[in-house]
Every structure is written in C-alpha cells, then in structure tokens.
Design brief:
By secondary structure, the chain is α/β, with parallel strands linked by helices. The protein is built from four helices and eight strands; from the N terminus they run E-H-E-H-E-E-H-E-E-E-H-E. Helix 3 links the parallel strand 4 and strand 5. Helix 1 packs across helix 2.
Length: about 180
Amino acid sequence: MTTRTVLDGAEISRALTRISHEIIEANKGVADLVLVGIPTRGSMLARRIADNISRIEGVDVPVGSLDTTMYRDDLAQHPTRAPHPTDMPVSVDGVTVVLVDDVLFSGRTVRAALDALGDHGRPKAVRLAALIDRGHRELPIRADYIGKNLPSSRDERISVKLTEHDGEDSVTISGG
Ligand code: 5GP
Ligand code: MG
C-alpha cells in the first residue's frame, strides 16, 4: 500500500493561517463569531484558528466542541459508539458559528453537527471550515473554508495527524 504526504507541518500551518484570514474577512472582523470544532481533531483545528485570530486581531474568539454521535443518522448501526464531550462555552444565539472539522467526506457528520447545534441556540449563520475536502458528498453540504481539496477514491484513507494528539503535524493519503 502506498502512502503519500499531502500536507506537511508547514503547509498545515499556512492553510490554517489563510483560513483564519478568510474567516476574519468574510465576517468583517471577529464580533459575534464562535468557532465550534467537531471532535477529535476538528476541535484542535478550531483552537488553532482561534489562536491565529487572536494573534491577527488581538481578540479572543470563543471556541466550543460539539459531539455529533447522538445525532448521526447511522446511530442505529453503531449503538455502542462512544460519545465525545460537548463543550459550548457560550450561547450561539444570534452569532455566526464556524464549524471546523479535519476531513469533509459524505457530509453526514456536518448534518449531524447542524442538528446538535440546534440545542445550543439559533445562530445568525453557520459556516463550515475543513482542513481537507476529499469529495464524495452524499448531502447538499459544502465547505466555506477549505485547507486543501483532495480528490480521492472512496476506498482511500486520509490520515490527519496533529501534534496535540499525534505528536506531529501531517496529512497523508493511502490505499485505494
Ligand atoms: P463524513 O461524515 O463527511 O462522511 O465524514 C467526515 C467525518 O469523518 C469527519 O469528522 C472526519 O474526521 C471523518 N472522516 C471521513 N473520511 C475521513 C478520512 O479519509 N480520514 C480521516 N482522518 N477522517 C475521515
Ligand atoms: Mg473527525
């Protein structure tokens, strides 16, 4: 099986810096903005984007984590899947929420996240950031902020490693 590096640490960092600038620009600043990561690595990416925004704008943007396990449409097939903690430090009523995930594939996780978000208020708008968009959407969902578009075959697997969790920063693709 061949494995190919798609992004190294410096490239991940640059992609997140660009996404941070794009979020600030689209939002015309950082007022009424909340970043919400989808565990596990989406939460780490949301934290990194918030740190970038803090460096760029000098403002701390709230960061939450939203577990989607109980809202998935395949819950019946995976009844024992362990939930991750949800941590929403602020209400999302009337704010712009940027959901953050590592890989966007079918779109079903994001659909579940939109459902889960409804328990925490009614945002003014919800946007989506993904480090990797690998295609194969099964729902009408698209990302507003993308680190890298990575056309893939269905049976390929993308490995996202982040220092906080995996001891290094890299994105690789293998199999297929
Ligand atoms: P979806 O729900 O869009 O099919 O898949 C997105 C979710 O599954 C994300 O939370 C993502 O972390 C995970 N995922 C889907 N495909 C891959 C992949 O190829 N590699 C990794 N690392 N995660 C994936
Ligand atoms: Mg994930």
